[in-house]
Amino acid sequence: MSDSKLSVCSECGSKYIAASSKMKAMCPECASILYGYENCDHVFKDGRCIKCFWDGNRSAYIQRLVDGRSDKMDLFRDKYTALQKEFGLGKKMVLSTSENSRVSSRMMSVIHINGEFYFQTDITMKKYHQISANNSVALCIDNIQVEGRCTELGHPLGHAQFCAAFQECFKGSYDAYTALENERLFVVTPHYIERWVYKEGVPYIEVFNIEKQEYSCSQYSGK
Predict the structure, then answer these.
(1) Contact, 93 vs 110, CB < 8 A?
(2) Distance, CA of 9 to CA of 71 (rounded, Å)
(3) Where along the chain do the CATH 2.30.110.10 domains lie?
(4) Does pTM surpass 0.85?
(5) How confident is the model over 109-150, as pLDDT tens digits?
(6) At the fourth CATH level, which superfamily is domain 86-219?
(7) N-to-C CA span, the chain
(8) Which burial class, exposed, middle or buried, applies to 130 when counting CB atoms under 10 A from its CB (0-12, 13-18, 19+)?
(9) pLDDT tens for residues 41-61?
(10) How many Å apart are CA 152 and CA 125, to the nearest integer?
């Protein structure tokens, strides 16, 4: 097995086959426990999974989650999976970025793949420089707001899944901009999502704490 095919999990420290995980820099085991993605169906031989190369190691935080798994976590996964299905493949969303206490916002064409949000931009744009200085960003659409960390992935044409989805959802933008030399692809990994919902005319605030895998829905009283 070539080392070029391996990554190191940022949570548990194990090496794993990069293509086996739905998230960058996180093995399928940790990505499943923390974010609800599909896990590898592990088969161990000589201390490692022969499918994803995970070594079976877990961080203290992951182990506490596993040991304390409860109906509350199942509720989070069910609600979060439903939210992702509602979002669909592509949407126009407002992206907010900041640097040195200066915040700017703009409408973006966003692709949603496996719980993460992808967009492209030019390296000369203000948002590119703000993200380079501060990768904490927010996305908003209708009654949903998303907070997360933004990572540059390189030129869009190097990412076939994004390109196929972007061309399907935003063909005009794909044809006009994706192949340009200055374009760069970014991914937003969400850690907190909030949504306002109404039940029989009564407002509620849904909170998805993705890092802790916690869900809550509280009536808004204004007090």
Answers:
(1) yes
(2) 27
(3) 86-219
(4) no
(5) 999 999 999 999 999 999 999 999 999 999 999 999 999 999
(6) Electron Transport, Fmn-binding Protein; Chain A (2.30.110.10)
(7) 59
(8) buried
(9) 999 999 999 999 999 999 988
(10) 14
